[in-house]
Amino acid sequence: MSEIQDFMARPNPKTHLKVAELFAGVGGFRIGLERAKGYEVVFGNQWEPGTTRQHAFNIYAKRFKTGIHSNEDISKVPTNNIPDHDLLVGGFPCQDYSVARTLSHAKGILGKKGVLWWQIHRIIKEKKDKRPSYLMLENVDRLLKSPVSQRGRDFALMLSSLSEQGYIVEWRVINAAEYGMPQRRRRVFILAYKKGSPIHTRITKLNDPLRWILDCGTMAAAFPVAIEKDLLLPETHTFALKGDLADISEKFNAKGTDSPFENAGILIGEKIYTLHTTPEYTGERTPLGKIILDEKKVPPEYFINPKDLARWKYLKGGKKEPRKSKSGHVYHYSEGPMAFPDPLDKPARTIVTGEGGSTPSRFKHVIRTKSGKLRRLMPVELERINMFPDEHTAGVTDARRAFFMGNALVVGVVERLGEELRQQIYRKPSSAKKELCAA
After folding, report:
1. How many domains, the chain?
2. pLDDT at residue 6 above 50?
3. Which residue segment(s) compose the domain that 31 sits in?
């Protein structure tokens, strides 16, 4: 018996949902779900193309000892080599998601750039009746508005491709800082529920799908929202998502007008319900100053060289100046000022992949210490901003650790979603909403 067959044959407690993690990075989804409890990651795939040094995978394999660790291009991993699982998770890379018909005009899908979203689609489709009951996915919020020429087309393709496989799909744009977490990181999270699963059945029995978005749903419970009742009707969009994937790719919002997708919504069958919501949170908040190290623990190279201060101030400052393109075209460039140094009484700004290194940059964090010195953030502080364990990425260069955190997600968001997903599966809504959400 092969390693994979042996692993798939092992008994698993019914209280644990089996998880497959794709595009795993250094394991943000896994950390969040393990903190939520009740999840067992049976498969994790991480592959960085174009390099022989698989640093992220090495960290993942070092930190997590259970499950199958796959360090191979996911497009080359046969579906039958992926253990059956209840929940598929992943922060899939952002690329062009368009599709085209085959030369014979069949309805098959051809990813124009071999993009990785279609690997998720491929795995779900090839799993057939054993496809996962639930999906939890993450991406940048501009996904709802891309591409510029057909606003919302990419997201429409994803929704339709999941609906074809029997899923109800809900989404929400979540800014972690608006729910007490230490980073202003805005991302779209997608949850999908397979036909026949307890949650899918419950949603179909609700008379009003908006109740799921605003009160009864997984995301509504994990991240409560509000909406001005007087604005409910004009800010609610309901429309049909019809046609095969190639039709949607070619025709969806072909005039390029504003995207019809708001920051929250759900797809049931061919019908989209979407509306604009605002966070409803009154709990504690975590400012940057609460998680930084004492300056005595910070190496000298992290303090700003006085010789570079003018450059830092220029890059962080507002600008309105003429610039010349490579072709010689002169244009006017403008951008607003950024806080310098970063305030310690607010959550951190979004970490970017270029956060590491001492070179002055507009986007790197710089804070003022109690002694009045200016310094950059340490890797462990970046980990704390994403709610990772301290020193989770230790073992590679500081610049690479910063890169990993720029690519990662805020673990606390996954933890809350994971906790509430289990509550929904095992039917444990809060007592205050039992009557409202009974179905």
Report:
1. 2
2. no
3. 3-283+411-433
